[in-house]
Amino acid sequence: MSECSPVITTNTPEFHKPGSIGKPLDNVEIKIENDEIMVRGTSVMKGYFEMPSETRAVFTDGWLHTGDKGYIDEDGYLFINGRVKNLIIMSNGENISPEEIENKIALNPLVSEVIISGNNTGLTAHIYPDMDYAQRQLLNSVDINNELQDFIDKYNKAQPSYRHITSLVIRTEPFIRNTTGKIKRKDPSILYEGQNAV
Fold first, then answer.
1. What is the CA radius of gyration of the chain?
2. Which range of residues forms the domain containing residue 165?
3. What element of type H or E holds 144?
């Protein structure tokens, strides 16, 4: 984070763990509060320049809210598993981190891009297929739909019911991205697709 000058944790050749973003630097403290990663230390900013209200919004008792969800394992390694602002809150009160599910769905070679959206009662997978892969495998649009649905059915079997994907939307166009290359999750087309999914 640029607010942390910019390094909080690091993996080194001697100390590293797959999937982790490493251990905190010596001058940094990390804690997890309500699943959010909080940071304080000598490299953490004092605040945003001439923006007191924005500064107050990101600090609690000297701890900086990173906006990232995560956990620290028994060996002190930090893992990120989502963004707080992207949480999907289900009708039963369960909080779903869409990034965790997206990472699992993205393991399928037929998936080029995926976004998980949701409402109170279910989750929708919006998938833009890897058309180069589909062509190499001689898959038509029906085959693509069937293969992706089979993959999601297998995913669902290994998940609690509140994490089941109940709708699948196959996109014909890539997602809209912002200037940093990230998919715009608030893209109206995603909401529109989810409302009309069957």
1. 20
2. 87-196
3. helix 141-157
